[in-house]
Design brief:
The protein contains 20 helices and ten strands. The protein is globular and about 65 Å long. The structure holds 5-phosphoarabinonic acid.
Length: about 450
């Protein structure tokens, strides 16, 4: 089981910038647990994802092995989870294994044209993922790819899988009309909480990971996160601490700092979850994606001596599954010979702890999540821990952690300019504001 170390948020350890036991007593933690247990929002359905049947996913994954490439088209919650799975569990995947994985989560024409240069569509299985089936970016890329298949005489029935709502939406209609292969996303599971649905599990299975491992990890951590009281509940402790550090000290930037390259994309997955779930009604927390040791040479200065706004979440790792002893060379150079007798894994672990201690000594709060190794089981635990903790944090702030009203305006203005029916007034508005923008420029 992953372990949460929280000493470095306590005033007993870090001094005046830390929390006391009394601070925690001021929270209604029972209420938060109750909201989770009783599923006071339908969208808490994501908690039950570990119980899903995976046979359909596994069957579809088998088809992928007949292809050289797997192209995933999606955005936000429909792409960040799959990408973090590939990076964590099969790093440098495309240099080592087939099918090669390409994730296209933008509408940058240059990226798409590069992908088309690199892959033969005939030998590519395309997974279009959109829960709503109406996201402009995904719809646009889907239509371009569909047309390309048509031009090349490739059958979408063979080369395409659609992952979408089981009943509703444009993509479901296309699945039905054209008899395409498809996987369902539970309508109650919101995009950024859907990594452990077919959205992420198909990719996991395709890169050679048994998706049950992820689900087992998620299930094991869930037991702790929904059944236990505060001091034995890592999700509740995490969300309570972060909420209190904001309320008491205005520490509202959450730095995700795993000490392994394999969790770099996990950091980005976390950032979407945290930002889109919590940033509303003038409240919330700003996530910052990071990786150790790299960002010690980039961001650490600001965390240590800059604005007093950061809470760092370290992810430490016990077993890197690889190591290098430092060679017995350059013995006459004191600036190098201190490394002799040590190893690379030892260095990264010591640097992680040194940074933790340095922050703590300077009264800067941090939490540390320790995992034995980066594998499907522990990645499943991390996904579910942070998903549940995010929902809990939303409850503390009194915001709905499952909607994203703030992204609608930009979408509507885009629809207006692109000529979508019903958005004509948005076109006028767009033009009006564009003129304003052009008023001052140099
Ligand atoms: O968390 C969310 O709901 C969003 O970030 C979505 O994942 C994103 O907008 C993509 O939506 P869809 O899967 O409907 O295309």
């Amino acid at each position: 089981m992953l372990k949460l170390f929280y000493s470095n948020i306590m005033n007993e350890i870090i001094g005046d910038n830390g929390l006391s036991l009394k601070d925690f007593e001021s929270l209604d933690t029972d209420k938060v647990i109750k909201m989770i247990k009783l599923k006071q929002y339908d969208e808490l359905a994501f908690i039950d994802l570990p119980q899903q049947q995976t046979s359909e996913i596994k069957e579809i994954a088998k088809i992928a092995y007949e292809f050289d490439n797997f192209l995933l088209i999606g955005i936000g919650g429909s792409a960040l989870g799959p990408r973090s799975i590939v990076e964590a569990l099969s790093p440098y995947h495309n240099l080592r294994k087939t099918p090669k994985v390409f994730i296209y989560d933008n509408v940058d024409p240059l990226t798409l044209s590069t992908i088309f240069e690199l892959i033969d569509l005939k030998k590519t299985l395309i997974n279009v993922i959109s829960k709503s089936g109406s996201t402009a970016e995904t719809a646009a890329s889907f239509m371009i790819v569909w047309q390309k298949l048509k031009e090349r005489g490739i059958s979408p029935q063979k080369n395409m899988i659609i992952t979408t709502d089981p009943k509703k939406g444009n993509l479901r209609k296309i699945v039905n009309d054209y008899n395409l292969k498809s996987l369902p996303i539970d309508p109650k599971v919101v995009g950024r909480y859907s990594v452990l649905s077919p959205v992420g599990l198909l990719t996991a299975q395709i890169i050679g990971v048994n998706c049950e491992e992820l689900l087992l990890g998620a299930e094991d951590i869930t037991q702790k996160c929904i059944l236990q009281k505060l001091w034995d509940n890592p999700a509740l402790l995490l969300s309570s601490a972060i909420y209190l550090l904001d309320k008491k000290f205005n520490r509202n930037v959450t730095v995700m700092l795993p000490y392994t390259d394999r969790l770099k994309s996990f950091s980005e997955w976390f950032c979407q979850l945290w930002a889109e779930s919590l940033g509303k009604q003038g409240k919330g927390l700003t996530p910052y994606p990071s990786v150790g040791t790299t960002d010690q040479h980039s961001q650490l200065q600001a965390w240590m001596e800059g604005l007093q706004q950061y809470v760092v979440i370290f992810i430490s790792l016990n077993d890197y599954k690889a190591d290098f002893q430092f060679p017995d060379i350059f013995n006459d150079i004191d600036g190098l010979n201190y490394l002799r007798g040590h190893s690379l894994a030892e260095l990264i672990k010591i640097e992680q702890e040194a940074t933790e201690i340095a922050l703590s000594k300077n009264g800067k709060p941090s939490l540390t999540i320790n995992i034995p190794s980066v594998d499907g089981y522990y990645l499943g635990q991390l996904f579910h821990l942070f998903s549940i903790a995010t929902a809990m944090t939303g409850f503390y702030y009194g915001v709905n952690p499952f909607n994203q009203p703030g992204v609608e305006e930009g979408k509507d203005l885009t629809y207006g300019m692109m000529g979508k029916k019903g958005y004509e007034n948005k076109k006028e508005e767009f033009t009006h504001y564009r003129e304003k923008k052009y008023k001052y420029s140099i």
